[in-house]
Design brief:
By secondary structure, this protein is an alpha/beta fold. 37% of the residues lie in helices and 18% in strands. It has eight helices and nine strands.
Length: 228
């Protein structure tokens, strides 16, 4: 997708959700796994002031029901709800004026639940913008950057794609991390950055390949051993 095509896709998704009755401040949840459409959908939700929520495919049915009960989303996309095609089909040709309240709610995430039931956490539009700008500045991201997104879109993976888009760069998305092709993908697409957890790098090092342009790697989730 070019940026013009992405903008039109975002407009259609935003229009479709609005025509399906989604209002400012209401949550919309996807149950689609690590499907790439979650990225433009997230941006479409920001455009109309609605709230992003995404359930991990690794949750049990009881865990999903608990999260849905806490968030009470207006609309579900995927399992138990409508499809992205249904949303786009509901779109009209009217422009969608971007939501302008930086203090409005943006997305819902849940804590890990290690000491009790997972707690619902609400982030603001302002927080998303500040987070993206901070990452963009620290990693010195610009329009020449090419980010390989292999992490979960229901969690941190999404928020490391946004800074690259904010700077006018290119995002390559995979449904899952593949230890056998990670280096080859980096080489093939001229990848300059990626977000991983230490286990991903540790397992990928067992396979052949190189990544001559990969210069910026964010490691999350656990301590990255100096030797690794």
């Amino acid at each position: 997708y070019t940026y013009a095509e992405l903008d039109e896709l975002i407009r259609k998704i935003a229009s479709g959700m609005r025509n399906m009755g989604v209002q400012e401040g209401e949550a919309v949840c996807t149950r689609v796994g690590n499907y790439w459409m979650q990225l433009p959908w997230f941006l479409a939700l920001m455009r109309i002031g609605a709230i992003f929520m995404s359930t991990s495919k690794y949750l049990t049915p009881a865990e999903v029901e608990y999260q849905l009960g806490q968030a009470r989303p207006r609309l579900i996309i995927g399992e138990g709800g409508v499809s992205f095609d249904d949303v786009i089909a509901a779109a009209s040709d009217d422009p969608v004026v971007p939501y302008a309240n930086e203090w409005g709610a943006s997305h819902i995430r849940f804590s890990s639940g290690t000491t009790g039931k997972p707690k619902m956490m609400l982030a603001l539009q302002r927080a998303n913008a500040a987070n993206a700008k901070a990452i963009e500045d620290v990693m010195q991201i610009d329009e020449d950057d090419r980010h390989l997104l292999v992490g979960p879109l229901s969690h941190a993976g999404l928020h490391y794609a946004l800074p690259t888009l904010n700077a006018g760069g290119t995002v390559y998305m995979k449904e899952a991390f593949d230890k056998e092709t990670f280096w080859a993908d980096c080489s093939k697409y001229g990848i300059t950055s990626s977000m991983v957890v230490p286990t991903m790098i540790a397992t990928a090092l067992g396979y052949e390949g190189d990544a001559p342009t990969l210069a910026k790697v964010v490691s999350l989730g656990a301590s990255l051993a100096p030797a690794l």
